Amino acid sequence: MSNVVSERPAREGGTPVRETKLTVFASAISEEAIHEVEAVLRSGWLATGPRVAAFETQFARYVGVEHAVAVTSGTQALELALAGLGVGEGDEVITTPLTFVATAHAILNRGATPVLVDIDARNWTLDPALLEAAITARTRCVLPVHFAGRPSEMGPLIGIANRHGLPLLSDCAHAIETGYEGRNVGGYGVANAYSFHPCKSVTTGEGGMVATNDAALAERVRRRRFHGLVPAVPGSGWLRDVTGPGCKANMSDLQAALGLHQLRTVEERHARRCVLAERYREALQNSEAVELPAPVPSSQRHGWHLFNVLLVPERLRIDRRVLIEAMAAEHVEVAIHYRPLHCLTYLQDRLGVHEESCPVATQVARRILSLPLHDAMSEADVASVVTALGRVIGYYGC
Ligand SMILES: Cc1ncc(COP(=O)(O)O)c(C=O)c1O
């Protein structure tokens, strides 16, 4: 980390490191993408149509599965996948606390109960060593989250899930490009749920996808996403029947046009974030106030949705909230992902969990900080973040 100890942080009246604000996430939408969306606007068909079908086919191919069903959000993708797997009232779904609340809401909205299993301190994903003890007669699904884009330990998790006859549904909201032992993480488990929220590496504005090799599951999700409608008789066109429950969660062609464009450049943009993550790692490796995420084994591929560090509180005279303010004054946005599920009031009330329920996640989450990482960033942007952090830590450190 560059030595700028003597410089006064902007929070104390110094000149900000950056002139313009650098955000944690940003969507880079090219002119070409805008033209593709415009073409849909002019086509006369805005709802679910040929672009959605093409996006589903190409997305399935990219993550290495047979079927993909496009929906309106990652939350809907989780909920519809759970419904398709038959998860409902009174069931339990095992998941990790270090995730966005959407994972829990999707389970709760099915009438099921999230059972939180702590994370492994090394990779911040569901700890397979704790999984078996959490399985009960009511468990219906195991739902790991590939936090920040780092793969969960799929080998052990799938081994345990299979032994108990449980389907594994991956929350892949951070993990479009993530790989485990040579293939995309989407090829593991029974189904995967993706998010195309604007902060994700493939965006459709808002949107999501269920991806699976199970044709019957894909068909159940497909029906349910649009009111449960089916042809009244094969090939009957507008004459339709409803044979099961439904909702309104179909993606539009406008969204899919953007998604198709984003998918074409997903690999090159991922490569860019890999370089930026490596620059962070090089620049921060000797910092005493910041701990880096553990290196990724060569058999795994990090999606680099987030670049998180852990602050070392003993090395700082300020708490994380003030550090975030001090970074903002340098025009660098940093963020917290996440306040874990067992520390959220609603889930504490509903599930009877508390801060000590998942002690590893509590400790990690108290110290975690996300630095800006997105493919519109340059290496100079990374350098400015490191300089700002160095200045703040240098001034407020001990
Ligand atoms: C881990 C995780 N799961 C699920 C979701 C839900 O996705 P969406 O916002 O598209 O509903 C998110 C969104 O940020 C997420 O980060």
Short description:
The protein has 398 residues and is α+β, with helices and mostly antiparallel strands.
Structure description:
By secondary structure, this protein is an alpha+beta fold. It has helices at 31-43, 50-63, 74-84, 102-109, 128-134, 154-163, 215-225, 253-264, 266-284, 320-329, 345-351, 359-367, 379-396; strands at 67-71, 92-95, 113-116, 139-143, 169-171, 179-180, 183-184, 191-195, 208-212, 229-231, 240-242, 290-291, 300-301, 307-311, 368-371. It has a 4-stranded mixed beta sheet with strand order 1-9-8-5, with helices on both faces. The longest helix has 19 residues, at 266-284. It is globular, with a radius of gyration of 22 Å. The model has no long low-confidence stretch (mean pLDDT 96). It binds pyridoxal-5'-phosphate. Residues 73-75, 99-100, 102-103, 145, 171, 173-174, 195, 197, 208 line the site of pyridoxal-5'-phosphate.
